[in-house]
Amino acid sequence: MTTLTRNASPAEHAVRRPLKRRGQSDLKIALFFIAPAMIGFLVFYLVPTLRGIYLSFTEYSILGDPAWIGTANYEAIAKDPLFWNALAVTSQYVLINIVLQTALALGLALLMHRVAKSTWIRGALLLPYLMANVIAALLWFWLLDYQIGIVNYFIESIGLPKVAFFGSEEWAIPTQALINTWRHMGYTALLLFAGLQSIPHHVYEVANLDGASPWQTFRKITVPLLRPVLVLVLIVTVIGSFQVFDTVAVTTLGGPVNASRVLQFYIYQKAFTESDFGYGSALAVILFVILALVAFIQMKFLKGNESDLD
Amino acid sequence: MKKKALTSLAAAAAAVLALSACGGGGSAEAGKGEINYWLWDANQLPAYKQCADDFHKANPDITVKVTQRGWDDYWGTLTNGFVAGTAPDVFTDHLGKYPEFIKNKQLLALDDAVKKDNIDTSIYNSGLADLWVGQDGKRYGLPKDWDTIALFYNTKLAADAGVTPEQMANLSWNPQDGGTYEKTIAHLTVDKNGKRGDEAGFDKNNVAVYGLGLNGSGSGQGQTEWSYLTGTTGWTHTDKNPWGKHFNYDDAKFQESIDWFAGLVDKGYMPKLETTVGASMADTFAAGKSVINANGSWMIGQYTGYKDVKVGIAPTPTGVDGKRASMYNGLADSIYAGTKKPDAAIKWVEYLGSAACQDVVAAKAVVFPAIKTSADKAVEAFKAKGVDVTPFSQQVKDGTTFLYPIADNAAKVDGIMKPAMDAVVSGKAKASSLTQANDQVNALFK
Asked: Do A63 and B105 touch (CB under 8 A)?
């Protein structure tokens, strides 16, 4: 690492002056090219986020004007059992979803890398991901239906009691976590597969010559060298997982009782069903902070921005 | 290349100009042009399209565009329309929703028009017109139709059990032992071995056919689930209706009734709540998995429409006070306060509320129109289709109905009561737990 910087510095010095002069003349053109992304960022991300933060300090029913109420929304949230329930339910979902999804995706990526070299098979793994979330949720909603679902038909035909996959409190969240695992693991596997391909082949040859077992190779070479990609994938999937909404909205609507009232659905319920946009915004800000923290912790402790390949 | 870009730019500019010209033009003429009308029930769409055509013939300078949206999208789209100023000029309104619209000043009061055009509100079935008068004493809708509750039952399965239509029509209920209503439900229940619910050796964990179907926990209203029972005990949802300020879910009479209701699941006479997520109660009824379904009159078409399933309709059981009870809900047509064509919208609403349109709706035999004479015509139209709907209409004639609870904060009350009631009906909690939910609900009104 240090050698790299030392090597880079003189070169940088050498080109800095001409670069700077060119930089000014290119500014307009650069801005022109950045503009589409910049405008999109401002209009669709920055402004809504700032407005959301502002609304979280107000009482606002969408019809009428927001009224400033300070931190009252946040104080109410701290005492709101449904918020803590939502946090617990969401965490349970994220845990099941991420552990399974990452493990399965890693296995699939290894298979793609080593065994299934056919583009068709690799492409087939992506199929569930090409399906819209709502369609996937509806599909499984019917397959797993208690009364008319084919899965319960098979369960019953081998003599086991039927399972209310969406209707029972114990199953509601695991079922939905599994559905989304099924949908996303192909895509996650593809990302990891790309990471695997970037590991130089000679490292494996050396390991092979030294007589490393496949498990040792996986643990000592594949995992450490895959780490930056793995961390990126984890950050992206954890954030996505925390934001689970469509599956719940299509199937259980937060129920039974509060068993699947995940954070995003609770936000939706407060804002759009109960017209309490201030409270909903405050919940959304909290989710934003949680996600930022999670991403930061993952970056920091899993050293996602460093590679062992140097 | 440059020339081309310029021409396309000019074309785009022209298009923008044309568009803005369109937007500016219409507002001057409040009684002419096209008005938008929304409803959510697809079954009623043909009837109202016909009304719109007839209306256009009588008023050639007004065209009505009828749009149907499913219930789930309807209210969200409507609210968005209010915010964006693009809501329909006239829309079908619901008692559970309109208090919030009044509070946010989204509805046009109809009092002046009703006075000016001499609209006689006594032609509607009693009470319906008053439902649409807000706390401010102003009228925000003209009644279009009403609904009540009755028992749909599978006549073949009932006959197999030896239960006659006369018995079905004369059931009685009380919250202690459930009366003949529970006895009948028990007798109609059959387990996997063919044993009935009232026989020794009945296996309540392996039920093939349930005596009573379950739609859901009923949230705070229990419109089709349990309100026809609690309504006979003297219990009411709120301290007064409409515009109650205090809910009564802590009442002993209510909690006793709900415990009885939830107890049916435990006895094996009614399916578990967890099994009702997904396939609808009516569909499982059609599949022969339950014999009696308490449901609303808006479901008549669906229940009688299943092939190879013979359906009977019986009135809800008599209860604690010796009378029947049914929730009585009425829909109306309201006008969006931001409409650009208030005069045309009022004309259309008055037409919708007149016998001319409601007779057309009646003839289609899908719902009961609000006007008394039109409702009678609907009963006849149903009869012509071979369906006797008097169990629904009788409650209105006998005056045994009570109104759908109208109060502020409906969505928030629902947000509290849905999970609380789910917990009770799924057996996770006793009905006494509703006292706490009731405190939460009443805190909304402080």
From this structure: yes
Q: Identify whether the C-beta of residue B299 lies closer than 8 Å to the C-beta of residue B209.
A: no
CA distance, residue A253 to nearest chain B CA (Å): 10
Q: Is A85 on the interface with B (CB under 8 A)?
A: no
The whole-angstrom separation of Cα B340 and Cα B35 is 9
Inter-chain CB proximity B104 and A256 less than 8 Å: no
| CATH 3.40.190.10 corresponds to the domain B30-146+331-394 | yes
Query: Based on the number of CB atoms within 10 Å of its own CB, is B189 exposed (0-12), middle (13-18) or buried (19 or more)?
Result: buried
Q: Which residues contact B134 (CB under 8 A, 6 or more apart)?
A: B98, B99, B102, B140
Q: What is the pLDDT of residues A98-151, one digit of tens each?
A: 999 999 999 999 888 888 778 888 888 888 888 888 899 999 998 998 877 899
The answer to whether B259 and B430 are in contact (CB under 8 A) is: yes
pLDDT tens-digit map of B271-299: 999 888 877 899 889 989 999 999 999 89
ipTM reported for the complex, 2 dp: 0.72
| Residue in this structure with the two tokens 């001409």, named with its chain if needed | A18
Of A240, A268, A274, A238, nearest to A253 by C-alpha is: A268
Fold topology of B149-328+403-443: D-Maltodextrin-Binding Protein; domain 2 (3.40.190)
Closest among B142, B91, B145, B118 to B337, alpha carbons compared: B91
Please report, for residues B235, B326, B327, B442, the alpha-carbon distance to residue B254 in angstroms, rounded to integers and kept in the order given: 6, 15, 15, 16
Chain A contact probe: residue of B83, B274, B418 with most A CBs at under 10 A: B274
Flag if A63 and B415 touch (Cβ within 8 Å). Answer: no
pLDDT band at A22 (very low <50, low <70, confident <90, very high): low
Residues of B with Cβ-Cβ distance to A256 under 8 angstroms = 273-274, 277, 422, 426
Residues of each domain in chain B carrying CATH 3.40.190.10:
30-146+331-394, 149-328+403-443
Domains of chain A: 81-301 (1.10.3720.10)
